[in-house]
Amino acid sequence: MQAAPVGASEPTPDERTTAMLAHVLTIFAGFIAPLIIYLAKRRDSRFVAFHAMQALLWHLWMLALYFVGAIGSSPSCLRRAFSNSRFRRLVLVQRPRLPHSSLDFLPCGS
Which domain holds residue 48? Predict the structure, then answer.
């Protein structure tokens, strides 16, 4: 274990709890909870501010990856949808009754 830098103190149990909440609350409140914790505690505790900022940046990074994944998968879903001859018949030619036993007319679902 490394020695603490000069002037640094051990975080209190309340600071540890608040830092943990910054990470856990992202499950329920998204990026809003660590943002509120960061804005409320950034001048009081560097420890809490650091962990709240980590939780905030991690959540925003994951949100960006979800958007990239959604945008990246959209062309392939659209391509599959319009290349599927059964789907093309359903949409472009006529509107027959939907089959009850199979869902293979869905473009991206399985």
Answer: 14-93
In a domain, 33, yes or no: yes
Mean pLDDT of 32-46: 93
Q: How far apart are CA 50 and CA 54, in angstroms?
A: 6
- Among 59, 13, 3, residue whose Cα is nearest residue 36: 59
Query: Does residue 48 lie within any of the structural domains?
Result: yes
CB 78 within 8 A of CB 84: no
Encode pLDDT of 61-103 as tens digits.
Answer: 998 998 888 877 777 666 666 666 565 555 555 555 555 555 5
Higher pLDDT, 30 or 7: 30
CA–CA separation, 21 vs 41, rounded Å?
A: 12
Query: 10 Å Cβ neighbour count for 47?
Result: 18
Whole-angstrom distance, CA of residue 102 vs CA of residue 45: 58
Structurally, the chain folds into a number of domains equal to: 1
Is 9 among the domain residues?
A: no
